[in-house]
Inverse folding.
DNA sequence: ACTGCTTTTTTCAAGCTCTGAAATATTGAT
DNA sequence: ATCAATATTTCAGAGCTTGAAAAAAGCAGT
């Protein structure tokens, strides 16, 4: 099927990748441990590690006793080998953040969007300005790459194009637009997917290979991770959980269809349902505080309690669908509304999911809350160039 | 992540696989064409092909002029290298079928199941008997492997266990039970998945890498193919489309939940809905003829027309969910009921899907009918050992 | 028949890569 | 100092692919 030849050189590429990845996620490690973990012979580990050290990607860092014998020299990824930048193009602001190679944050800038439906050109300009800014601030070493998480679906190009209904963007060639201002490697992806990536590397998804990060904000989205990598489908718009029909011919959804999950458990939808049930809007200046208020009032207000109870039902059913279709090891519930609602509703959501999902896949799944919060979109985006580096560490020029 | 070392030997393994697969799906091919298609140098192709020929996996088959020069020698996979057996453990019978390596059918035997809830032991005995039978009948060459498609979810072991609610099987160690009667390599999988595999190789899924085979029989299932291979999830029970909630708190489903897709578009459910609407059961002795009758009567019976129209709506919504979540290139509608209903309803189903799915992923998808019919479960199962052979052609002993 | 021309296959030295075994390095204990 | 215990490095050996050159196999014309 996959008619791609393999040469001896690919062997080295792959083994460099295996070694570096192992080190990245389990540092510090001695050559000897590395040999055991990767299955490579000590000779090869020594050889490859030497190469990586010479290139500056890896550094020796102290040593540790080994009862009686020569001490083990510990190796780590060199955080200063280079920097990566993550960009979060949200619905209200552009955030640009830089990190060292081990994802320690270095600098951040935020730009508010001037309109809820900003034109793409100024946004691209903001991204480029932010890029310059964080690059000039703290940190040394070349920028290895830039990851960009956008709240919309991204058609992987080249050049990548962005379709974002909420921003009013249709097939915006963001990659080409940025390309005019920078030569750095660019990685553009959907924001929900980059957030999912962040949870997989550093949050509640750690250690699993099959997970779904279910995100509830004003809208609803998901990142599906299968076999350790983000599931994209044919044109990388997979995972549109929010617009999955849950209530046939139910409430109208902003996508034009009706009965979508988002029309029931999205923050906006929850508040709408409350308003209809209570006859008056939920208190709070904005969606975010309104949801918080709603959850807080559940103990005293029967109406709020009922709306939340119903929400748990819908959400449980939506999650059960994920369980049945994807059979993940873990479902991670996040997004700002997901966290607020989940803090109270998680046990009920688990029950409702159990009631509706098939027993066998349900038993294989744990349902948990996100650990990183909704601001991790930029972190996850910055992860993309690092992942690329780990997958194929070798094409780039040494520092 | 994937801490697996690679050695020089893997290079040969992979290239053997690439070459053999290319040949399998595009034969006949000359060495020179093979070199172009795989990207391997002529020298390597010659070398690897020679090895495969010596082992009997590949044969030279005629030659073809090449204007003016030395004629090209055509190569093909040797159909007589060995045989494969496919088993279909359905709800009413066990079918065992043998094929040559290129999937030309050689022999078939059927055994009716003595009860709708047969005990596993006699079924295993029937499989083994069928295996002996088809092996002794037509065909020569050793049996390379046996694939088994079971109507239930299969927990890939080892040993593989089968959970089949309709058969009344719970964690049946089918692999171990068969192992006592044969030493052949066994591949056990869900019947919907093997049928999907058959459609991918020889049916409506050919040429795509991302597809969903949606199957409607008495129940409803699906096989999801991503990146060219069947999606299994963490414990290989992924793709349970039929028990996905489509109508929140809707009709009760035999799985214990309610509002499942299966409770609306499964053959049994369609007939139930007709009975409720018409006040009398649909004509026909069994489910299959009843569905056929129902479709046939739609032009004259308003009730039948309405039930079918509603079915198209539910099915369209269910398919739209697949489109949104998996973003496939193609949706293939099959199963005996799916084919009968689809013959009439396909245009309406497409419309309903379009109405409910997101525009972008919908435009990437074509919706078609199965080409192989529901009997291809055994064919698809027999495909499993072949796929294994193509992936790693080398461990086995030469013919 | 023989020669020249064209195109396909095979052959082969070179250059990589991993491995297992042996050699070397490093440190604490005697 | 010397020994013992480990950790690393070195190195010959074997397996791969490659690109170039050589060989093979027809066809056409003389």
């Amino acid at each position: 099927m996959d008619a791609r030849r393999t040469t001896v050189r690919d062997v080295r590429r792959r083994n460099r990748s295996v070694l570096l990845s192992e080190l990245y996620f389990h540092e510090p490690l001695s050559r000897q441990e590395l040999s055991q973990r990767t299955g490579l012979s000590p000779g090869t580990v020594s050889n490859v590690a030497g190469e990586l050290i010479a290139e500056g990607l890896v550094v020796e860092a102290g040593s540790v006793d080994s009862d009686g014998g020569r001490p083990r020299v510990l190796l780590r990824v060199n955080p200063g080998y280079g920097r990566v930048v993550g960009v979060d193009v949200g619905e209200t602001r552009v955030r640009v953040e830089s990190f060292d190679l081990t994802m320690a944050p270095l600098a951040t800038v935020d730009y508010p969007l001037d309109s809820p439906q900003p034109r793409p050109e100024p946004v691209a300009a903001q991204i480029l300005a932010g890029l310059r800014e964080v690059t000039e601030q703290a940190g040394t070493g070349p920028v290895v790459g830039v990851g960009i998480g956008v709240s919309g679906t991204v058609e992987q190009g080249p050049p990548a194009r962005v379709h974002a209904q909420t921003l009013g963007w249709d097939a915006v060639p963001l990659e080409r637009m940025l390309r005019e201002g920078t030569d750095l490697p660019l990685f553009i992806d959907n924001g929900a997917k980059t957030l999912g990536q962040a949870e997989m590397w550093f949050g509640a998804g750690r250690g699993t290979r099959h997970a779904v990060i279910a995100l509830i904000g004003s809208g609803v989205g998901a990142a599906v991770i299968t076999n350790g990598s983000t599931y994209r489908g044919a044109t990388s718009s997979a995972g549109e959980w929010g617009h999955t029909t849950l209530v046939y011919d139910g409430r109208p959804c902003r996508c034009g269809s009706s009965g979508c999950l988002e029309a029931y458990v999205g923050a906006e939808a929850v508040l709408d349902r409350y308003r209809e049930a209570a006859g008056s809007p939920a208190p709070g200046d904005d969606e975010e505080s309104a949801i918080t208020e709603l959850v807080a009032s559940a103990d005293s207000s029967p109406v709020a309690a009922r709306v939340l109870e119903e929400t748990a039902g819908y959400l449980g059913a939506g999650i059960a669908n994920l369980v049945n279709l994807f059979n993940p090891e873990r479902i991670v519930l996040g997004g700002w509304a997901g966290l607020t609602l989940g803090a109270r509703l998680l046990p009920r959501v688990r029950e409702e999911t159990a009631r509706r999902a098939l027993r066998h896949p349900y038993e294989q799944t744990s349902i948990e809350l996100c650990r990183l919060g909704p601001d991790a979109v930029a972190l996850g985006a910055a992860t993309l160039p690092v992942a690329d580096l780990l997958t194929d560490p070798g094409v780039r020029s040494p520092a």
Q: What stands out?
A: Residues 395-399 of chain A have pLDDT under 50 and may be disordered.
